[in-house]
Amino acid sequence: MSANGFAQTSSVQRGQALYQSRCTACHAIDANQTGPAHRGVMGRRAGSAADYKYSDELAGSILVWTPKTLNAWLADPEKLIPGQRMGFQVDSRRERADLIAYLATLK
Ligand code: HEC
Description:
By secondary structure, the chain is mostly helical. It is built from 5 helices and no strands. The chain has a single domain, classed as Cytochrome Bc1 Complex, Chain D, domain 2, CATH 1.10.760.
């Protein structure tokens, strides 16, 4: 609660809500679905979730997922890794920042 008595939603909370509404059609935290499982994604090598069949382009990239690379990925995956298979992007910088704050909590 903030000083004026209204609950403030944090970036992580907003990111979690965005994740539920935008990402769970294809992703889950602990299971591979259309997209790879997300637990531990921050700091992980791109294309390295166990038992998920990535595109050759993503699997062969030398990226590590950091706030910076995740921001570029979510803004335009095809620009970051041409030939990848995630057909989705997030245009709002603030929404990307919230999503990244949430992903970072999935340890
Ligand atoms: C329409 C389905 C779809 C939606 C919606 C989607 N993704 Fe994906 N995502 C994928 C697919 C498919 C891949 C794997 C791409 C490849 O192998 O080239 C992927 C890969 C990723 C990766 C790379 C993970 C790794 O292990 O290297 C991240 C991070 C990611 N998605 C985040 C998100 C977030 C955050 C959202 C919601 C804002 C989202 N995705 C929405 C399908 C989707």
